[in-house]
């Protein structure tokens, strides 16, 4: 997995006021360099609008501080060839952790977003062992790359649920209920001895899809993850939308689609996740006489032409269409990306989903696609978030004011 990608030219405000002028200009130059690297002093002067003298002095200072480095000279021009600069990748590191029902996945990336280490370990059966397992995973990756704890500038922990900041405790993680245990997040903060950012895994997967997948260049899209659980990540006007309390996209709590032909008034219906996630698919298949242990087996049988499995897939598509029909008129996304273990079987689901939405909605149906980031989506998003914070920390450690 390689998480480095060139971005479009940033629009960083160049500080010209009396306070923190030098620091502000150096921060702006660094931001432009992230996009243009390798770049020369004249290129950065043109990009930032600052004078060549100011840019050259700033680059010299940033090089001395270990934030940028020379990478060569630009050839092919008459006269003295200008020196080329780039952000110093190993000026710091970020750690990304993705905790799921079966696996803990980890990655370490440098400040360019390039992954330098990866490791997976089984999620322990007992939550009492979770913190120790995560610490062991992180320490193993660090030691492999000879990275000290002090060089880790940010750690991003991705998991189901939403962090309640008042209690420092996860909520709404029914598929991994032990994660909601009081004291777990504080224990993890203490054990990792680093700045820990806790983020919903689907939000991170959405950031990963935006930066490295099908969401690149799309200002309004949603990432719908369907697997052990079900959730939605929202990109609105190019930014991740979390809502007032972090619960935006928690579509698991929506009511499920009513049974076909039934009158639903006054009749209790289970939550959307109960019907549309993996356990719901398996339960439906078993009621139809299929001997399956997991949702993957249902889709395998459907690909083989088993009519009972095909009926289950059709019902799953109807359930997902029901949830999307509640979302599309509100968010008006240009694109819906399906991810998660079940979402990646979208080839069977998408035609029926499109047909249902076209029947139910009097507005344009968005484009649909299956995620290109696969099982790496959460880690990729965690690296995006971690690198953003890590770069700030690198400057803050030098006594810079970056906001």
Automatic annotation (TrEMBL):
Annotated transmembrane regions: none
Q: Which Pfam families match?
A: ROK
Q: Which domain of life is it from?
A: Bacteria
Q: Which family does it belong to?
A: Belongs to the ROK (NagC/XylR) family.
Its recorded name reads N-acetylglucosamine repressor
Organism this protein belongs to: Paraburkholderia sediminicola
């Amino acid at each position: 997995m390689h998480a480095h990608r060139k971005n479009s030219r940033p629009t960083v405000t160049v500080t010209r006021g009396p306070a923190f002028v030098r620091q502000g200009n150096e921060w702006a130059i660094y931001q432009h360099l992230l996009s243009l690297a390798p770049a020369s002093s004249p290129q950065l002067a043109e990009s930032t609008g600052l004078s060549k003298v100011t840019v050259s002095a700033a680059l010299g200072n940033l090089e001395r501080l270990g934030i940028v480095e020379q990478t060569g000279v630009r050839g092919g021009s008459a006269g003295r060839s200008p020196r080329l600069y780039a952000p110093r990748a190993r000026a710091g590191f970020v750690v990304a952790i993705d905790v799921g029902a079966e696996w803990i996945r980890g990655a370490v990336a440098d400040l360019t977003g390039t992954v330098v280490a990866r490791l997976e370990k089984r999620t322990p059966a007992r939550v009492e062992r979770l913190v120790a397992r995560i610490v062991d995973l992180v320490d193993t990756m660090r030691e492999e790359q000879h990275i000290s704890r002090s060089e880790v500038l940010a750690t991003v922990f991705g998991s189901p649920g939403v962090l309640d900041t008042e209690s420092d405790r996860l909520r709404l993680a029914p598929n991994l209920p032990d994660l909601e245990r009081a004291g777990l997040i504080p224990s993890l903060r203490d054990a990792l001895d680093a700045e820990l950012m806790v983020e919903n895994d689907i939000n991170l997967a959405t950031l990963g899809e935006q930066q490295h997948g099908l969401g690149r260049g799309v200002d309004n899209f949603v990432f719908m993850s369907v697997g052990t659980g079900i959730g939605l990540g929202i990109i609105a006007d190019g930014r991740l939308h979390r809502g007032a309390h972090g619960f935006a996209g928690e579509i698991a709590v929506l009511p499920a689609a009513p049974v076909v032909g039934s009158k639903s008034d006054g009749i209790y219906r289970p939550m959307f996740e109960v019907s549309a996630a993996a356990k719901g698919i398996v339960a439906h298949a078993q009621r139809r006489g299929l001997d399956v242990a997991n949702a993957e087996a249902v889709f395998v049988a459907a690909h083989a032409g088993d009519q009972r499995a095909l009926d289950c897939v059709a019902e799953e598509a109807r359930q997902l269409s029901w949830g999307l029909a509640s979302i599309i008129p509100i968010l008006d996304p240009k694109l819906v990306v399906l991810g998660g273990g079940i979402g990646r079987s979208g080839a069977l689901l998408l035609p029926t989903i499109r047909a249902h939405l076209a029947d139910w909605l009097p507005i344009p149906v968005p484009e649909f696609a299956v995620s290109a980031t696969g099982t790496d989506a959460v880690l990729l998003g965690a690296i995006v978030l971690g690198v953003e914070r890590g770069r700030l920390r690198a400057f803050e450690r030098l006594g810079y004011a970056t906001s």
